[in-house]
Amino acid sequence: MSLYEKTIHELSHMLKAKEVSSVEITESVLERIDAVEDKVGGYVTVSKESALEMAKAVDALIASGESLSDIAGIPVAVKDNICTKGIATTCSSKMLENFVPPYDAFVSNKLKENGGVIIGKTNMDEFAMGASTETSYFHLTKNPYDLTKVPGGSSGGSAAVVAADEAIFSLGSDTGGSIRQPASFCSVVGLKPTYGLVSRFGLVAFASSLDQIGPMTKDVTDCAIVMNAIAGHDKMDSTSANITLPDYKSALVDDVKGMKIGIPREYMGEGIAPDVKAIILNAAKKYEEMGAIVEEFSLPMTDYALSAYYIISSAEASSNLARFDGIKYGYRTKEFEDLTDIYAKSRTEGFGSEVKRRIMLGTYALSSGYYDAYYKKAQQVRTLVKQSFNDAFAKYDMILSPAYPNTAFEIGGKITDAVQMYLGDICTVSVNIAGLPGIVVPAGFDSNNMPVGVQLIGKAFDEMTLIRGAYAFEKNTDFHTIRPSL
Amino acid sequence: MNYESVIGLEVHAELATNTKIYCSCRNEFGLDVNTSCCPICTGMPGTLPVLNKKVVEYAIKAGLALNCSITREGKQDRKNYFYPDLPKAYQISQFDLPLCTDGYLDIEVNGEKKRIGITRIHIEEDAGKLIHSVMGDESYVDFNRCGVPLIEIVSEPDLRSAEEAKIYLETLKSVLQYIEVSDCKMEEGSLRCDINVSLRPVGSDKFGTRTEMKNVSTLSGTQRAIDYEIGRQTVILDNGGTIDQETRRWDDGKGENVLLRSKEEAHDYRYFPEPDLMPIVVSDEWIEEIRATLPEMPDVKKARYTGELGLGDYEAGIIVGNKSMARFFDRCVELGGNVKAVANWLQGDIMKVVKDKDITFDDINFTPEDLNELAAIVDKGTISITAAKKVLAKMFETSDKPSKIVDELGLAQISDEGAIEAMVNAVLDQNPQSFEDYKNGKTRALGFLVGMVMKESKGKGNPQIINKMILERLEAYKNS
Q1: Which CATH code for domain A3-256+439-445+459-481?
Q2: Quick check: A80 contacting B, CB < 8 Å?
Q3: What amino acid positions of A are annotated as catalytic residues?
Q4: Which of residues B254, B286, B318 is at a domain's end?
Q5: Scanning every residue of chain B, which has its alpha carbon at the shortest distance from the alpha carbon of A90?
Q6: Alpha-carbon distance A207 to B289, whole Å?
Q7: B11: closest CA among B216, B161, B149, B226?
Q8: What does the pLDDT look like over A316-354, one tens digit per residue?
């Protein structure tokens, strides 16, 4: 087994036992990138030199007998909307093609503090708007399980590079399912933490009240390890929660006996592919076998949540993306008449069509005369969605569902139909609307051998239960061991 | 037709906090271009605002000083518009839940008190500054002012003339300076105002259509801008025209205003709650803590000076008008000093030195205790006023107590009646003719004799005692 195929916890043991160096691991991953990146296209930037420097620095620390975190010396890929000091952070947009931030995001800094080796920046849907990574300005990312299919999105690059062993783990961001859906498509573990658990400082904002950064890993143990490294209060983010953090690794317990799990009928209804439905029901059966109590229930407001999501996220995006105006940084049009012309042309030329669609949608929803009908109404729906989850969690410890109604679709298959693309988000957006944590773990393959993940949704700040539930599932199944052949 | 003008002001005051409203950059005027800015206040991607608590404290302090209700749970909103001096392309402000509402400010118009309503006070961030090249073909942005905290104080349309608006602005300025939340230096742009003006026939209780005037940045400009706008609207109405609801821009150099945008061109700012910031929660305890730090307001102070302390209206006004002098004076009074004497010293000789040296009363190197002591020494007759002025000059230079200075300079007066009587007797014995002169109506003789005794005492004799003693002797001779 090559080094690049291993998990964080495996490599961390080897590093601590001095069986291997971080430079060796990093070189192994870089070789893997050289070998398969042409096919996968998961990266926007591979920062080979700075990665090797970081690896050397960690090796020096290990040699000096320093006690290190579990991610020390481990190559990590970072989604390209998370600022990395000195490394281009493009959001896969022409607008920020040459933007090199002079500061680190909170999580980038956390990775560095913990000795993580940042190996590159991953491709994504432009400004995280999309569910297939097809809206990237740069290039497509392919699903490592079938190169004619999408990896999902918007964190498609982060999912694909982990599935293709081009990184040991990665960070993604999730505004409406952007970690969980690609995790499902690429058979990796993806966690969208509770809103406020991981600082958003340095995450280029799409929808401020929904965005969260989270880990994408090869197994649940690695997920817990990464959470230990990146969660925590940040005084630079006013929405960051100031809570006492648990040791997420202590949730790695193979025991769900007596755990109450609900399956929302609304997530399993019309539109869900039969194979996906069967896999999710199998997962439910598995939990029953393991001693959990599983039952169906109704989670009202699901349909409205999708509409509310698109209004709120687009409204916030229209404001968040206004700063890209061609004046201070980023793309500026070459020829212009006056100030209005700079704005109009730079934004017309610098943004792709999906981004422009959302800006227009959001601008409309906030306009005077329409605010009450759209934005305000959507916020009211948001309150009701939270309430319906609260009611559910009075009965259940976790909610189990698909992350997406289908497996990965063909490249070019849905990109032409925005509404079709949006409807797919039905299983994931409510979680963001309510600010809850959701984890996706590999749960099977459809008749075309495309992966399907099962989503577990928990109470706010109850990542411990999700990790425990996901870990027990992983321990009692072997879907996560089936890797793509590239 | 005769019109009544109806005026309301929106005053923007920069708060004198150490740092900016959402980042830790220094909040200071006059720094080199783009030396006080960071990724947060220049709106770089991924950065987030964190509210400076001092800004809320100062805004609440202003609200309390202006008799407002304080909102217990406020929020901040985004005001979206494009302009190169606004790097995020939205200004974080407060839309529907301002920190302070429903207050008032009492002003004095022609000796009569008038109450001006305060609709609201909210917090917001300032924008940067554009610098245009001399050739006019390039523009640059200075981000130092980006994120400087502001409060916007919106008055009710209670003002009826340019004069009233000017008095309101002056009074408001002195309140904000008194509570030390803003420097209110109009020349540095730390106090700016937008002016709403409408006209209506005298006696009407309906408001006319108003215009809003921007870019007014001096006190005298305020008055001229309002008078100009009243004139402009009067001409239109007198010619049977109607006023359009529009925004106009005051050009102080030309002394006129021009149309900036019509109602149709008004911006749609698409306000919505700022998702990057949490609600501002204000507890009763916090409000009371802030209230406890409020100083006595200028109008209350002046009333106390003229009432309880018996100062004249003019001198009370002078002391109240100078915050550091008032502070010094209040301390003297607290310590039981001679109110009138201390007031005289402060406004006279001390004020002169303070002005000459370009310092404040906080910077002078003697204390209120020292000044009280000086006044007491004079009261006791230990030294003359002339000598006291010498002592005061010395007090500015050393930290010695006045009594010590008096000793050192040998300025103590001879007030011992026995000693003075001996000198008086000696002088009278040498000048017998003076008795006759005085009897014959030559009252100058008194002055001559007092002068002789003063000379005899080498200037230290207490002139009052000498005067009294000689007068008694001369009168006795005259009546004998």
Answers
A1: 3.90.1300.10
A2: no
A3: 79, 154, 178
A4: B286
A5: B45
A6: 37
A7: B216
A8: 999 999 999 999 999 999 999 999 999 999 999 999 999
